[in-house]
Write a structure and sequence with these properties.
The chain is α/β, with parallel strands linked by helices. The chain has two domains: 115 residues, ATPase, nucleotide binding domain (Nucleotidyltransferase, domain 5), CATH 3.30.420; 185 residues, Hexokinase, domain 1. The chain has eleven helices and 13 strands. Strands 8-13-12-9-10-11 form a six-stranded mixed β-sheet, sandwiched between helices. A five-stranded mixed β-sheet has the order 3-2-1-4-7, with helices on both faces. It has a two-stranded antiparallel sheet with strand order 5-6. It is globular, with a radius of gyration of 20 Å. The N and C termini lie close together (11 Å).
Length: 317
């Protein structure tokens, strides 16, 4: 019996899995840099799973998907969808934005797979938004239509970063001077953490000690570096303001979800941060957002689950 597969492709890793009746199984993770092209990475998975024959697949990828040619934003991979389907000998192949997949996972996530931050109650079939700091910053909306849930693609991670407090201004000025533009992705991603840290260190005339986002996060959580703590604190504040903007954009009465590979490493820190306060700090529109719930996605395989939901919706069993 032929099988379906799904892949979740970020700027650093590609995770591949087999689709089952209940979700996904046989998940394997590979480093993107270990393969010259995406077909070689997926072929490696097929080779690692010799007992199965795959005929249909869905790839969720961290870049815009606007036509046959796909070019990653934060990695060197580029490919033709038609050529890839032929190379992998598939009957059907779908390539979707990674946050299209994340959005499709939201209707199938249970209460045990999310962590609510603050107050608010979701309205059934209300608009939903999801954003996820990782290698980059993905953003997606999903809305209920007469034919079911429909995602609204976009590149919301690349909107302008809007400073809210004086510390934000310090970060904004650093980004303007070093990059020429301050975008949301440059503060809400792995490098965004490092950008905030560098800005605050420079502002305090302190040495820039850490070079990796994980080092900053560890130092903040361990309480061994005040600037790292301030960095993570500001990161959560910025996420809160951004989430509130998403709520205003589309009346997301179904909730705002945080995905990606960074935020779920420190859920308690987020819970105790100013995230929710900044989410609700919308002046005369505070009443508009205060009842909208915010969640952290705790399910590590939500991208794969969403890709599987999309694939099953668009193919026969």
């Amino acid at each position: 019996m032929s099988q379906k597969f799904v892949a979740d492709v970020g700027g650093t890793n590609i995770r591949v899995a087999r689709v089952t009746e209940s979700g996904v199984a046989d998940i394997k993770k590979y480093m993107c840099n270990d393969f010259a092209s995406i077909d070689l990475a997926i072929a490696q998975y097929f080779s690692d799973m010799p007992e199965y024959s795959f005929s249909q697949g869905c790839i969720a990828i961290a870049c815009p998907v606007l036509g046959d040619q796909v070019e990653m934003t934060n990695h060197s991979w580029a490919f033709s969808q038609n050529a890839l389907r032929s190379q992998l000998k598939l009957d059907a192949l779908f390539v979707i934005n990674d946050f299209t997949a994340v959005a499709h996972s939201l209707p199938v996530l249970g209460e045990e797979q999310v962590v609510q931050i603050g107050e608010g109650t979701a309205k059934e079939n209300g608009n939903i938004a999801v954003f996820g700091p990782g290698t980059g910053l993905g953003v997606e909306h999903i809305t209920m239509t007469s034919t079911g849930w429909q995602t609204l693609d976009g590149e919301g991670g690349h909107v302008d970063f809007a400073p809210v407090d004086e510390t934000d201004v310090v970060v904004w000025r650093h980004l303007q001077s070093t990059l020429g533009r301050a975008s949301a992705e440059e503060v809400m991603s792995g490098r965004g953490l490092h950008n905030i840290y560098t800005a605050l260190a420079n502002h305090a005339s302190a040495p820039v000690v850490f070079t990796e986002p994980a080092q900053i996060t560890d130092a903040a959580l361990n309480g061994t570096c005040k600037i790292a703590e301030a960095t993570l604190t500001q990161f959560c504040r910025i996420m809160g303001s951004f989430a509130g903007n998403l709520a205003l954009n589309m009346a997301t009465t179904g909730g705002i979800f945080i995905g990606g590979g960074i935020a779920n490493r420190f859920p308690e820190f987020i819970q105790n941060s100013d995230f929710r306060a900044r989410f609700e700090a919308k002046g005369q529109m505070k009443h508009y957002v205060k009842d909208i719930p915010t969640y952290l996605i705790a399910e590590p395989d939500h991208g794969l689950l969403g890709a599987a939901a999309y694939l099953n919706q668009n193919t026969a069993s």
